[in-house]
Structures are given as structure tokens and as C-alpha cells.
């Protein structure tokens, strides 16, 4: 990987000519959603943006209620994705403030936001024309 950065290498490896998202990207975003749910994230929304955006194939948008919870969700996602898919985020932004953390995996981008930021930026409305993926949180044991 001499002259290629990790991001450029990832982009060249995941280029798909027919704009169809990969099964790996779908699996990764579902893994991230499950990890977020395990850390009690709420309002988990998964969007397939490959038809409307060149940045990624999938977005996940989740809510955490405190800076500590937002960081814990981010760490849980990073750990689970690395364990199941052998991938680390290409970059992570926002951990110091932890009101909105963005984890970029190249073909999947995860937004972990506190309620105020989520309401203000309203990413679901901005990407409202993207298809939603079904995600059912694991029921809690009684």
C-alpha cells in the first residue's frame, strides 16, 4: 500500500460499478446497529443511501442520552465491527465533545448523536429519500 492512504485503498477495493451496496456493508451496518442497541442507544435508523449519495452505501443514525453513553456506543460499535468484520473505522470524529460522533467505515457511516443535535440537524429528513433498512432491536430479557 505504498502511495495509497487507507481511505483511498478502501475506496478502490469497495468500488462497485452498478451502484449496488455490498453484502459486507449491509452486514457491517447491521452489526453496528446491534452494538448500539446493546449499549441502549435509541431511535436507531438505518438508511441505504447508495442510490442518492456517493459518500457511502449505508448510514446509521442513533441516539445516546449523555456524552458518556455516546462514547460507550461508539466504542461498542468499533469493538463489535472489528471482531465480526475485521475492520476499524477509517476515521472517527467528535469523541472529545461526544455530542455527535461520526464513525466512517468507507461504505458505512455511523452517526451517534445526543437528542438535541439529532433534532437540530435532522439527518433523517435530509436523507428522507433514501431507503430505510429494517432493524429490530433485541428484546430485553424480563
Can you give a write-up of this model?
With 142 residues, the protein is of the alpha+beta class. The protein has a domain at 21-118: 2-Layer Sandwich (Beta Polymerase, domain 2), CATH 3.30.460.10. The chain contains 5 helices and 6 strands. The chain has a 6-stranded mixed β-sheet. α2 packs across α3 (67-85). It is globular, with a radius of gyration of 15 Å. The mean pLDDT is 86.
Structural category = alpha+beta
User: Helix count, per DSSP?
Assistant: 5
Low-confidence stretches: none
**Whole-number average pLDDT?**
86
How much helix is in the residues? 25-40%
Question: What is the CATH homologous superfamily assignment of the domain at 21-118?
Answer: Beta Polymerase, domain 2
- Oligomeric status of the shown chains? single chain
Strand content: 15-25%
Gap between N and C termini: 50 Å
N-to-C SSE string, H for helix and E for strand: HHEEHEEEHHE
CATH topology type of the domain at 21-118: Beta Polymerase, domain 2
CATH architecture of the domain at 21-118: 2-Layer Sandwich
How many strand units? 6
Amino acid at each position: 500500500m505504498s502511495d495509497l492512504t487507507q481511505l483511498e485503498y478502501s475506496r478502490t477495493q469497495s468500488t462497485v460499478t452498478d451502484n449496488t451496496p455490498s453484502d459486507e456493508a449491509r452486514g457491517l451496518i447491521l452489526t453496528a446497529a446491534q452494538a448500539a442497541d446493546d449499549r441502549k442507544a435509541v431511535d436507531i435508523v438505518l438508511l441505504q443511501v447508495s442510490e442518492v449519495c456517493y459518500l457511502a452505501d449505508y448510514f446509521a443514525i442513533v441516539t445516546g442520552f449523555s456524552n458518556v453513553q455516546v462514547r460507550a456506543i461508539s466504542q461498542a460499535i468499533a469493538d463489535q465491527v472489528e471482531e465480526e468484520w475485521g475492520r476499524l473505522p477509517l476515521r472517527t470524529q467528535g469523541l472529545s465533545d461526544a455530542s455527535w460522533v461520526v464513525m466512517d467505515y468507507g461504505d458505512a457511516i455511523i452517526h451517534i448523536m445526543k437528542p438535541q443535535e439529532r433534532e437540530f440537524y435532522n439527518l433523517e429528513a435530509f436523507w428522507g429519500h433514501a431507503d430505510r433498512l429494517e432493524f429490530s432491536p433485541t428484546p430485553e430479557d424480563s
